């Protein structure tokens, strides 16, 4: 797994709070457990905020003990609940959240979520004296500055479980299946799933789909006896209904593909061993970084190690899909 940095404790904290926000991802629970247990170990009081930023603004905080996070390391979802809180983009609403934290004597906040949630954490760090640390929690693995995110590995494996089953039906009926996975803006999940499932094709938002070429490829392989069935992994993209439209277009090439939308099952389920270790490490390291005096950072992964990345750059830059990985996904089915 990833190596952990040595950090010297320089600061004291009275109390910290932890919240999960945005789309949930498997592994948020072990991350919360890591934060809570590491803080308690340093005799820091810990509050769990219910329902992300909405709960923070409403003051929905509860004191966390070691027992509060017992028996959750293996559970999907988040015991703290998650929510979207569009009002949090308003500085006046964020001021209410800061007031809540200050009223409770909380001097640091750990936010577990995707890039929207990390943007909220950055705003709080800029607008108050409260130290804020973000942890990348998303199945999309699309966060700049980190090679891995909490939930990605589990989501890849969940999609693979489903695709391995779909392949049996695809083969029995000699059909192609278009399997839609999550990924509105990025094809990380689709590309990894495509490679691991041995998919015949992968469609991602980063590259325009060549439908003529795809149709031709499928009918060629059917004619040549190379393959009359197979899996095409499609990232959902920004365009609702994309996968159904692709299936429709493929019928013009003599195919009768079926569509399977994996949907929210990809977000749920028991976190994989990899995600449990990643989430536990990031959660515990969030406390080490706070004690070492860091704030306004995300704790992520680079070159096999846990690292800190300024939140400012996390939210400013986009992480690009490695073109070589995408090429590999296309190459291996040939
Ligand atoms: P994710 O964290 O999974 O990317 P969202 O983009 O929905 O999910 O963001 C989750 C929450 O983070 C939002 O509901 C909002 O409360 C907060 N958030 C998102 N964008 C901003 C922003 N620009 N400024 C402040 N808070 C934000």
TrEMBL record:
<keyword id="KW-0067">ATP-binding</keyword>
<feature type="binding site" description="in other chain">
    <location>
        <begin position="198"/>
        <end position="200"/>
    </location>
    <ligand>
        <name>ADP</name>
    </ligand>
</feature>
<comment type="subunit">
    <text>Homotetramer.</text>
</comment>
<keyword id="KW-0808">Transferase</keyword>
<comment type="pathway">
    <text>Carbohydrate degradation; glycolysis; D-glyceraldehyde 3-phosphate and glycerone phosphate from D-glucose: step 3/4.</text>
</comment>
<dbReference type="InterPro" id="IPR012003">
    <property type="entry name" value="ATP_PFK_prok-type"/>
</dbReference>
<feature type="binding site" description="in other chain">
    <location>
        <begin position="264"/>
        <end position="267"/>
    </location>
    <ligand>
        <name>substrate</name>
    </ligand>
</feature>
<feature type="binding site" description="in other chain">
    <location>
        <position position="167"/>
    </location>
    <ligand>
        <name>ADP</name>
    </ligand>
</feature>
<comment type="similarity">
    <text>Belongs to the phosphofructokinase type A (PFKA) family. ATP-dependent PFK group I subfamily. Prokaryotic clade 'B1' sub-subfamily.</text>
</comment>
<dbReference type="Pfam" id="PF00365">
    <property type="entry name" value="PFK"/>
</dbReference>
<feature type="binding site">
    <location>
        <begin position="33"/>
        <end position="37"/>
    </location>
    <ligand>
        <name>ADP</name>
    </ligand>
</feature>
<feature type="binding site" description="in other chain">
    <location>
        <begin position="138"/>
        <end position="140"/>
    </location>
    <ligand>
        <name>substrate</name>
    </ligand>
</feature>
<keyword id="KW-0324">Glycolysis</keyword>
<dbReference type="InterPro" id="IPR000023">
    <property type="entry name" value="Phosphofructokinase_dom"/>
</dbReference>
<feature type="binding site">
    <location>
        <position position="23"/>
    </location>
    <ligand>
        <name>ATP</name>
    </ligand>
</feature>
<feature type="active site" description="Proton acceptor">
    <location>
        <position position="140"/>
    </location>
</feature>
<feature type="binding site">
    <location>
        <position position="115"/>
    </location>
    <ligand>
        <name>Mg(2+)</name>
    </ligand>
</feature>
<keyword id="KW-0418">Kinase</keyword>
<keyword id="KW-0021">Allosteric enzyme</keyword>
<dbReference type="GO" id="GO:0003872">
    <property type="term" value="F:6-phosphofructokinase activity"/>
</dbReference>
<feature type="binding site" description="in other chain">
    <location>
        <position position="236"/>
    </location>
    <ligand>
        <name>substrate</name>
    </ligand>
</feature>
<comment type="function">
    <text>Catalyzes the phosphorylation of D-fructose 6-phosphate to fructose 1,6-bisphosphate by ATP, the first committing step of glycolysis.</text>
</comment>
<keyword id="KW-0963">Cytoplasm</keyword>
<feature type="binding site" description="in other chain">
    <location>
        <begin position="182"/>
        <end position="184"/>
    </location>
    <ligand>
        <name>substrate</name>
    </ligand>
</feature>
<keyword id="KW-0479">Metal-binding</keyword>
<keyword id="KW-0547">Nucleotide-binding</keyword>
<keyword id="KW-0460">Magnesium</keyword>
<feature type="domain" description="Phosphofructokinase">
    <location>
        <begin position="16"/>
        <end position="289"/>
    </location>
</feature>
<feature type="binding site">
    <location>
        <begin position="114"/>
        <end position="117"/>
    </location>
    <ligand>
        <name>ATP</name>
    </ligand>
</feature>
<dbReference type="InterPro" id="IPR015912">
    <property type="entry name" value="Phosphofructokinase_CS"/>
</dbReference>
<dbReference type="InterPro" id="IPR012828">
    <property type="entry name" value="PFKA_ATP_prok"/>
</dbReference>
<feature type="binding site">
    <location>
        <begin position="84"/>
        <end position="85"/>
    </location>
    <ligand>
        <name>ATP</name>
    </ligand>
</feature>
<protein>
    <recommendedName>
        <fullName>ATP-dependent 6-phosphofructokinase</fullName>
        <ecNumber>2.7.1.11</ecNumber>
    </recommendedName>
</protein>
<feature type="binding site">
    <location>
        <position position="258"/>
    </location>
    <ligand>
        <name>substrate</name>
    </ligand>
</feature>
<feature type="binding site">
    <location>
        <position position="175"/>
    </location>
    <ligand>
        <name>substrate</name>
    </ligand>
</feature>
């Amino acid at each position: 797994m990833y190596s952990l940095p040595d950090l010297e404790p320089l600061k004291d904290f009275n109390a910290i709070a932890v919240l999960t926000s945005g789309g949930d991802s498997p592994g948020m629970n072990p991350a919360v457990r890591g934060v809570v247990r590491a803080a308690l170990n340093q005799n820091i009081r810990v509050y769990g905020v219910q329902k992300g930023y909405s709960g923070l603004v409403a003051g929905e905080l509860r004191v966390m003990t070691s027992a509060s996070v017992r028996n959750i390391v293996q559970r999907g979802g988040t015991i703290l609940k998650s929510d979207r809180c569009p009002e949090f983009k308003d500085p006046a609403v964020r001021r209410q959240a800061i007031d809540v934290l200050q009223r409770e004597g909380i001097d640091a906040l750990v936010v577990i979520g995707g890039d929207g949630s990390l943007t909220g954490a950055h705003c709080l760090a800029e607008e108050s004296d409260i130290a804020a640390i973000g942890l990348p929690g998303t199945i999309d693995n699309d966060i700049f500055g980190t090679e891995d995110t909490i939930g990605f590995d589990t989501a890849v494996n969940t999609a693979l479980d489903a695709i391995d089953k779909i392949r049996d039906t695809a083969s029995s009926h000699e059909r192609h299946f278009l399997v839609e996975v999550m990924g509105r803006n990025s094809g990380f999940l689709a590309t990894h799933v495509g490679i691991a499932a041995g998919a015949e094709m992968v469609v991602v938002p980063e590259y325009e789909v060549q439908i003529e070429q795809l149709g031709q490829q499928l009918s060629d392989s059917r004619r040549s006896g190379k393959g009359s069935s197979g899996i095409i992994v499609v990232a959902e993209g920004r365009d609702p209904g994309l996968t159904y439209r692709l299936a429709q277009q493929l019928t013009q090439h003599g195919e009768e593909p079926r569509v399977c939308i994996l949907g929210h099952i990809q977000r749920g389920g028991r976190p994989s061993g990899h995600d449990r270790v990643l989430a536990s490490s990031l959660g515990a390291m969030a406390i080490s970084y706070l004690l070492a005096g860091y704030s306004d950072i995300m704790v992520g992964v680079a070159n096999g190690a846990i690292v800190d990345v300024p939140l400012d750059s996390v939210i400013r830059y986009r992480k690009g899909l490695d073109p070589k990985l995408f090429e590999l996904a296309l190459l291996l089915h040939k």
